[in-house]
Design brief:
The complex is a heterotrimer of chains A (125), B (297) and C (495).
Chain A (H helix, E strand, L loop, with lengths): L1 H6 L1 H16 L5 H23 L23 H31 L4 H14 L1
Helix pairs in contact in A: 2-3, 3-4
Chain B lengths: L6 H7 L4 H10 L20 H31 L14 H8 L1 H5 L4 H9 L1 H22 L6 H4 L10 H23 L8 H19 L4 H4 L2 H27 L20 H24 L4
Helix pairs in contact in B: 6-7, 7-12, 7-13, 9-10, 10-13, 12-13
Chain C lengths: L7 H15 L6 H29 L3 E5 L8 E5 L1 H20 L1 H7 L5 H20 L3 H19 L5 H32 L4 H14 L3 H18 L9 H6 L3 H27 L1 H6 L2 H20 L5 H20 L4 H30 L13 H4 L1 H15 L5 H13 L6 H27 L13 H19 L1 H13 L2
Antiparallel strand pairs in C: 1-2
Classes of the chains: A mainly alpha (125), B mainly alpha (297), C mainly alpha (495).
Chain lengths: 125, 297, 495
């Protein structure tokens, strides 16, 4: 059992990171929420990258025609992680732009306070 | 002749209020139609203590669901194939063909580049579109339409008189650009590719922009121009890929040379695609920097 | 060379993407708007052709994207169901766009309107891609596109409340996508496949052998929860009322009517093609879906009664209707899935019509959003009032209207499920009653004598045309729901 846990250390670490990121979403501060979402995405990349590794094999840069697949790791999860990282960067940039606009308008980074102010402002109209 | 006097006709003419009448029948109030919304029970003003109390309930639910999720995931992960197992289901005929036949079919020594830009190119096209959509959204939010937009886009920094930084950047900037271009161009021959190379190029541009302020790149590359460059590169990417998908689906043989291993000008479409992606990523990252640091007075 | 119609799904997706990429280069609003409408009209025609041709052929086809066949390259797949759904989505999009061009000029900042159309086109592209895709990871990428585009559409008015609601929507979107990607990653780890057909074979093999069953269950659960969070299903719906009520009228219509449905169609494809209904019933996941669906139906309707603002009330009603769809999925039979698809079509047309008509009523009442101050607005804009009346009655379940057809088909499907019949019938009855409790007062409120005398305002021709078209389609759906249901069942057989 312990040996299995040590063997699966990357996947277990990924799951704990996911839970930590999820818990960080609880905080009302917007920047912390963004960091939490980033931690969750990174944990999924760790999980995916660990899915591709095979013991004793090397990175999939082949040297010539007729390469032997049993000498290289699985290239598919690496491609998936590439896509995931770009998507994560895009959503983080979008979040930060929204945060900047909200901060300029309401001078606060606390999402609950912002929603309260926004709704009150709306009713005055 | 008298007018019809039924309740419906009265309502139609605007003399009575059907809803208030119904309400007065049900609620037993006097039938004077209120001009303002009926007063609801006054809500307690949300004081700090109220906010805090409401959050405790929400906190508990959230923490419980997080612990549940953790337990579920841990139990699922325990049953998965062991890390590093050569006989895992993921090492199947799919990955074998990418590695074994990748060079011959796509011309890329880098099996991952061959996979994302040739075998599974549609996913990469979608991913570039995600980056583009995020860039446009940031542009939408943070771009000011002022007449003197030339001044509005200069990042305001305190580094304008920092001699050490400017000298260091002047020396290192060409090398950064060279390294970024090397990574982009060699994407199919070694680890690298459009995304990582583009990130390096973008970082170099940001460094130059941060060090030199107004006289820097922000005049030559304002967000409108970088957006236009991004759009054109994405269109070129889309056109190349459309051609490839259409000819592939209809089983039409293409005449694009498959490529010689080890030479830069090879591997069919992968080199132009890498260049397009590199430019898109570099422009997008620089755009983010310009828009986010603009107007920090 | 393939028959021409088989290229159409690919052409549809690429046309929508190319038009959206070109939008920033088209600076003036009018040409950009015309381009978008023309592209959406072409997409509608393509989808109808695909539906008709696959119906006549009697089988679905796969389309290879590139030079490499199934497990190595990407694929699209189209059949009767995909064609009908794509036609429905593009049709609704076309009608809302034609009816809404006054909105764009008034609500969105000048000079940025072409960026708004970019996002609308991206929404079309991602809807079509989610309908036609045959690959889990492509589906994930287009889920992300849809999420970012939908958030950009919500924030387009740039008021403070809109941006705050957008950030909450974006948080739920990211959470949903993260959960979905984790599900796909676990499934890939178990099976080594990403395309739906090889994945199905691998899943069947593993479950027959009894190995790695629990990770597969967890993976399906994560994917379903992710998609449910993005489509506003009951426990994860808190972002929906704020986001949908603070967008422009056309944006609310498109968001409520279409964006949520794309995720649901993708979920249906995962359930039917990758995992199969028998497995879901065996794993009791259908019961969980049913429970949450019924919860959504009732709790959202209860919440909608307390709403003072018109658009927020309709947004809560959306949550309830999405609950119907998940409850129908939870019945676990092909008839249930077909009923869910019919409810998707009915709701797409009805909710869009409701938002468009309420938008008109708000516009003729001096942009006042609260229900009480909208009293009598239907007398100023009679066509919008009639459209709202029809839509509200349809959602309450009046016969000859689309909503009745949907409820009837869901009830019919529940008869074939031994345990859930009584629960489903009770839930349908109770939620219809609750729907009536907030739609009927609103309808009466709109037709009451107004507080002050405003002149009758005629909205422009295109808005009137689109409202009339929506009303006609609603009645058509309500009258001919049996033939449409048979078509949908046929499509699900071919899925």
């Amino acid at each position: 059992m312990l040996e299995h846990i040590i063997n699966m250390r990357f996947e277990i670490a990924a799951v704990f990171l996911f839970a930590i990121g999820f818990m960080t979403l609880l905080h009302p501060n917007l920047i912390k929420k963004i960091i939490g979402i980033n931690i969750m995405d990174t944990s999924i990349f760790l999980f995916l990258a660990a899915a591709g590794y095979v013991d004793g094999r090397t990175a999939p840069i082949v040297t010539g025609l007729g390469a032997d697949p049993s000498q290289y790791i699985n290239p598919v999860p690496s491609g998936l992680v590439l896509t995931g990282i770009v998507v994560s960067v895009s959503t983080t940039a979008f979040f930060l732009a929204l945060t900047i606009r909200l901060y300029r308008k309401y001078n606060s980074l606390n999402l609950d306070k912002i929603l309260l102010l926004a709704r009150k402002g709306k009713e005055k109209v | 002749m008298t007018e019809p006097n039924g309740r419906f006709s009265q309502w139609l003419r605007g003399e009575t209020d059907l809803f208030d009448e119904a309400r007065s029948l049900i609620l037993n109030q006097d039938g004077v139609p209120p001009a303002d919304p009926p007063k609801k029970k006054p809500k307690r003003r949300k004081t700090g203590a109220m906010l805090h109390r409401r959050y405790t309930m929400f906190h508990i639910l959230f923490v419980t669901s997080c612990i549940l999720l953790l337990a579920l995931l841990l139990s699922a992960v325990m049953d998965l194939p062991t890390f590093g197992d050569p006989y895992a289901p993921s090492s199947n005929e799919v990955s074998d063909r990418y590695v074994a036949d990748g060079l011959e079919e796509t011309g890329a020594l880098n099996a991952v580049a061959g996979m994302i830009l040739d075998y599974r190119a549609f996913d990469t096209f979608g991913e570039s579109t995600v980056l583009f959509a995020a860039a446009i959204s940031v542009l939408f939010l943070l771009q000011h339409r002022t007449d003197s937009h030339r001044h509005a886009f200069a990042p305001v920094t305190t580094n304008e008189n920092d001699l050490i930084l400017q000298t260091a950047v002047r020396i290192s900037f060409p090398f950064i650009l060279m390294f970024g271009s090397y990574v982009v161009l060699n994407g199919h021959l070694s680890p690298g590719g459009g995304f990582s190379g583009g990130a390096v190029l973008g970082a170099g541009l940001i460094l130059y922009g941060a060090a030199f302020g107004r006289e820097g790149l922000s005049e030559k590359l304002p967000p409108e121009r970088t957006s236009r460059i991004t759009v054109i590169c994405l269109l070129i990417y889309a056109a190349l890929k459309c051609f490839s998908f259409f000819t592939g689906a209809n089983h039409m043989a293409i005449e694009i040379p498959k490529g010689i291993p080890g030479a830069i000008l090879s591997s069919g479409f992968i080199l132009p695609l890498n260049i397009c992606v590199g430019i898109i990523v570099a422009c997008t990252i620089f755009n983010f920097f310009l828009l986010i640091t603009e107007g920090d007075d | 060379m393939l028959p021409f119609y088989q290229n159409l799904p690919f052409f549809s997706i690429m046309l929508a993407m190319l038009v959206s990429i070109v939008c920033p280069l088209v600076k003036r609003t009018r040409p950009c708007y015309n381009l978008t409408v023309l592209a959406t009209a072409m997409l509608f025609i393509f989808s109808v052709i695909v539906a008709i041709c696959t119906g006549l052929q009697g089988e679905s086809f796969t389309y290879q994207l590139g030079h490499f066949p199934a497990p190595w390259g990407n694929e699209l797949r189209a059949g009767v169901l995909e064609g009908i759904m794509a036609a429905c989505f593009t049709g609704v999009m076309l009608l809302s766009l034609t009816g809404g061009h006054q909105d764009f000029e008034s609500d969105i900042e000048n000079g940025k309107q072409n960026l708004y159309f970019l996002m609308i086109n991206l929404l079309s592209a991602s809807l079509l891609a989610q309908v036609y895709t045959n690959d889990m990871f492509t589906g994930y990428v287009f889920l992300e596109i849809s999420g970012i585009a939908a958030c950009a559409v919500v924030m387009a008015t740039q008021t403070g409340l809109a941006i705050a609601c957008t950030i909450r929507y974006m948080i739920f979107n990211s959470l949903g996508s993260g959960l979905f990607l984790l599900g796909v990653a676990i499934l890939y780890r178990c099976t080594g496949q990403l395309l739906m057909e090889p994945l199905h074979n691998a899943v069947m093999l593993l479950s027959a052998q009894g190995s790695m069953v629990w990770p597969m269950i967890v993976s399906l659960g994560l994917m379903t929860v992710g998609l449910a969070a993005k489509s506003g299903q009951f426990p994860f719906h808190s972002w929906l009322p704020g986001a949908h009520s603070n967008a422009t009228t056309t944006s609310s219509a498109i968001l409520s009517g279409l964006v949520l449905k794309g995720y649901i169609i993708f979920e249906i494809k995962i359930i039917v093609r990758v995992f199969s209904l028998e497995l879901l019933r065996q794993w009791h996941l259908t019961d969980i879906l049913f429970l949450f669906g019924v919860g959504g139906m009732i709790i959202a309707s209860l919440r909608a009664r307390k709403e003072e603002q018109a658009k927020r009330m309709i947004a809560f009603s959306t949550v309830a209707q999405i609950g119907y769809i998940y409850a129908a999925l939870g019945l676990g039979t092909k008839l249930g899935i077909a009923a869910a698809c019919f409810q998707v079509i009915a709701h797409a047309f009805t909710k869009t019509m409701l938002f468009a008509s309420v938008g008109t009523l708000i516009d003729v009442s001096g942009h006042e959003k609260r229900l009480h101050y909208l009293r009598g607005s239907a007398r100023r804009a009679p066509l919008a009032g009639a459209a709202f009346t029809l839509g509200g009655l349809s959602l309450c379940g009046l016969p000859l209207l689309a909503g009745f057809g949907a409820k009837y088909l869901i009830a019919n499907a529940s008869f074939y499920n031994r345990y859930l019949t009584v629960a489903m019938l009770l839930a349908l009855a109770f939620s219809s009653l609750l729907n009536a409790l907030y739609y009927l007062p609103a309808i009466i409120n709109f037709w009451m004598p107004p507080l002050e005398d405003y002149p009758v305002v005629r909205s422009d021709r295109s808005r009137r045309f689109s409202l009339i078209a929506f009303m006609i389609v609603n009645v058509a759906l309500g009258v001919w729901f049996v033939p449409i249901m048979n078509l949908l069942l046929h499509g699900i057989e071919l899925l």
